[in-house]
């Protein structure tokens, strides 16, 4: 027998160490020159590159030994102790590249799928990629990157590479379970990519276990840090932010210095503790305690700089970055968010580019202490969700929050587009209307303050889930939680039918309209639609007669769509010059006013359900106490599913309370239920 070459021996030892079952030497052979040439040709054809590129890249230099071994049922081709290609079936059907090959040749497999970094842990754990994890819209990118979904065409069974958003290197390769047309027809729902090989599986472990950079972690693939040259070009091309002069910066610094969380340091800060992780998103040349600046908007520009080397400087920097992440990066739709993800993805990228952060050098020492300090100030609420500490709520009406946003905008720091939705969410320049400020206001004074124009309008709104989002086209891009009124739903369905040519021809439409005698709107509802795969499968059940290819009047499709969407109730309340909006995921419940006898001649009047109509129970109770000259108290409604508050007022004030709710708070009579148990 031919003696083993050094390369064959290394591959054999690697496989024997990786798997419990001993691997026989007879299953590992060295390819002949002619077979190696065929391998090079087949691999180049699969990757869509020139065959000579494999030689120029140094992956398969001339006269290199190619060793083939078995890994379960797959054949693995190694060159210089590095697995470069594999045959998934082991029958010579097709030759696919490993992640080592894709990293060495960026041009390989130009067609690919882009997913979210948050989804990568599932794939790294061995799961297939579902269609909702595909990024198909360029609006999902914020750094000029594109998904190339519109230009990418594939069929079921095609092999594509998978990479994470913000990272140019592929971390998996797999086979498409459906074609592009089938994926779009089913509303991007179901299995998408059958993963055959990924980092860091056993096939990757056969090599030198190298990675493209620090962005590749065994638990997740993060965004790749930007190169210094790209960052310098962006800063050179970026115009100077308005209002970033010394005067506005110094004025904002005066406001920000008042926001130091210096109270009760002994309770919330500890001098000892474990070292917290501050090495998220670090570059190849960065130390473990250096955070790399992100390309996201830096919302602290224009403010007076903080010297982190000075006593208390590191504390001030972390407090400023925490507030900046809350105000300009965290959206209410992202809650609840795990605390470690908030720290890594929102807080650290907010830092100035010339600042090195080290949480251990601050008085907080640990992330837990940092979040506890802000929770004690009641800026955020932290609770456990599935065993992880998460930021569950942000008080955007908190005086510290409002003051920070105002100071940051005065300094020219909040001019980015990402800050606008957060300001609309509650960080306005108007004075807070908390219960403490309105505690001394009577109901009559409230009437004088709000005027006689109090009104309440309740309308239905609908939210589209993943399956129905394609019907709304550009409306649903970048905002999966958007609510649509009934008119918008009808308009979106009409545009979808016109875009996909689902309306029948005029000659067929006339006969179909005659069959529907009770048509209300001839111009719209009398039109007939041919149901496609999306409308037929998602709007109708398997046991129903209608399905893909069936014809149905447009006016009959609309209620079907509205029934499938998630219904919400939007309550718009106007009192004087103030307008508030409450969004409910359930039906609007009426306000319940009840009076009952409490022994002898004593009575108690209770009212609940005020929150649905933008009425603060604490403020209402304080005002009722002044107006009725009676003792009041508040208590949470009984039941685990109840979150409302019930107000109890001493005495029988049933009629007076109903009059106040209708005349002064604008609550319509149909939304007030009364119950008299005093007799």
Oligomer: single chain
Number of helices: 22
Secondary structure class reads alpha+beta
**Low-confidence residue ranges:** 8-26, 228-299, 413-442, 444-452, 507-523
Mean pLDDT: 75
> Would you report the number of β strands?
26
The N- to C-terminal Cα distance equals: 107 Å
Mass-distribution shape: globular
Strand content: 15-25%
The main sheet orders its strands as: 1-2-3-4-5
Helicity level: 25-40%
> What does the main sheet amount to?
5 strands, antiparallel
Cα gyration radius (Å): 32 Å
SSE layout and pairing:
Layout: H1 6-18, E1 29-30, H2 33-47, H3 51-56, E2 66-71, E3 74-79, E4 82-87, E5 96-97, H4 99-104, E6 112-115, H5 120-124, E7 129-130, E8 159-164, E9 170-176, H6 180-185, E10 191-198, H7 202-205, E11 216-217, E12 220-221, H8 228-237, H9 246-257, H10 265-268, H11 313-328, E13 337-338, H12 339-347, H13 367-376, E14 380-385, E15 388-394, H14 399-410, H15 420-424, H16 443-450, E16 455-463, E17 483-484, H17 486-499, H18 506-515, E18 528-530, H19 533-539, E19 551-553, H20 554-564, E20 566-575, E21 578-584, E22 591-597, E23 603-608, H21 617-628, E24 632-636, E25 645-650, H22 654-663, E26 672-677
Parallel strand pairs: 6-8, 22-26
Antiparallel strand pairs: 1-2, 2-3, 3-4, 4-5, 7-10, 8-9, 9-10, 11-12, 13-15, 14-15, 16-17, 16-20, 18-19, 20-21, 22-23, 23-25, 24-25
Helix pairs in contact: 9-14, 11-12, 17-20
């Amino acid at each position: 027998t031919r003696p083993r070459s050094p390369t064959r021996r290394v591959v054999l030892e690697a496989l024997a160490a990786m798997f419990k079952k001993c691997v026989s030497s007879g299953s590992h052979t060295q390819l002949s020159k002619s077979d190696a040439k065929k391998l090079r040709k087949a691999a180049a054809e699969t990757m869509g590159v020139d065959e000579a590129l494999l030689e120029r890249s140094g992956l398969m230099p001339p006269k290199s030994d190619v060793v083939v071994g078995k890994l379960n049922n797959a054949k693995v081709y190694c060159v210089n102790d590095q697995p470069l290609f594999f045959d998934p079936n082991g029958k010579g059907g097709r030759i696919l590249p490993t992640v080592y090959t894709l990293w060495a040749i960026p041009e390989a497999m130009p067609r690919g799928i882009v997913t979210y970094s948050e989804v990568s842990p599932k794939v790294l754990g061995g799961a297939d990629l579902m269609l909702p994890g595909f990024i198909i819209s360029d609006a999902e990118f914020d750094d000029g990157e594109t998904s190339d979904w519109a230009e990418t065409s594939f069929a079921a069974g095609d092999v594509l590479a998978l990479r994470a958003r913000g990272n140019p290197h592929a971390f998996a390769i797999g086979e498409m379970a459906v074609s592009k047309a089938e994926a779009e027809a089913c509303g991007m729902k179901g299995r998408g990519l059958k993963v055959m090989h990924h980092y860091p599986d056993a096939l990757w472990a056969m090599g030198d276990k190298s990675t493209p950079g620090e962005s590749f972690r065994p638990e997740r693939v993060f965004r790749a840090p930007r190169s210094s040259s790209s960052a310098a070009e962006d800063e050179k091309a970026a115009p100077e932010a308005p209002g970033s002069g010394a005067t506005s910066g110094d004025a904002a610094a005066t406001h920000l210095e008042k926001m130091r969380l210096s109270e009760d340091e002994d309770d919330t800060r500890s001098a000892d503790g474990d070292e917290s992780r501050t090495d998220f998103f670090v570059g190849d040349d960065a130390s473990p305690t250096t955070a790399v600046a992100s390309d996201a908007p830096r919302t602290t520009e224009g403010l007076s700089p903080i010297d982190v080397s000075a006593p208390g400087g590191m504390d001030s920097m972390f407090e400023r970055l925490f507030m900046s992440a809350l105000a300009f990066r965290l959206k209410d739709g992202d809650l609840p968010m795990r605390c470690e993800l908030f720290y890594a993805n929102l807080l650290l990228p907010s830092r100035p580019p010339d600042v090195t952060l080290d949480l251990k050098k601050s008085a907080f020492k640990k992330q837990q202490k940092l979040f506890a300090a802000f929770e004690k100030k009641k800026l955020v609420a932290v609770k456990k969700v599935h065993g992880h500490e998460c930021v569950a709520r942000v008080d955007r009406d908190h005086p510290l929050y409002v003051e920070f946003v105002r100071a940051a905008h005065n300094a020219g720091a909040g001019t980015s587009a990402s800050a606008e939705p957060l300001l609309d969410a509650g960080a306005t320049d108007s004075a807070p209307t908390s219960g403490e400020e309105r505690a001394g206001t009577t109901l009559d004074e409230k009437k004088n303050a709000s005027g006689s124009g109090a009104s309440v309008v309740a309308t239905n709104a609908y939210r589209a889930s993943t399956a129905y989002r394609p019907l709304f086209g550009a409306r649903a891009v970048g905002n999966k939680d958007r609510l649509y009124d009934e008119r918008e739903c009808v308009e979106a369905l009409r545009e979808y039918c016109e875009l996909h040519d689902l309306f029948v021809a005029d000659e067929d439409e006339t006969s179909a309209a005659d069959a529907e005698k009770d048509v209300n709107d001839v111009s719209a509802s009398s039109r007939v639609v041919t149901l496609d795969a999306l409308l037929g499968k998602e709007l109708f059940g398997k046991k129903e007669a209608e399905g893909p290819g069936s014809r149905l009047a447009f006016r009959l499709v609309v209620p079907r769509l509205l029934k499938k969407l998630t219904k919400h109730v939007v309550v718009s309340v106007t009192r004087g010059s103030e307008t508030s909006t409450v969004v409910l995921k359930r039906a609007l419940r009426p306000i319940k006013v009840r009076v009952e006898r409490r022994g002898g001649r004593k009575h108690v009047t209770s009212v609940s359900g005020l929150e649905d109509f933008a009425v603060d129970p604490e403020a209402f109770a304080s005002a009722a106490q002044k107006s009725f000259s009676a003792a009041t108290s508040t208590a949470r409604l009984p039941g685990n599913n109840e979150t409302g508050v019930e107000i109890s007022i001493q005495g029988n004030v049933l009629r007076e309370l109903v009059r106040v709710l209708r005349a002064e708070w604008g609550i319509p009579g149909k939304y007030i239920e009364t119950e008299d148990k005093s007799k």
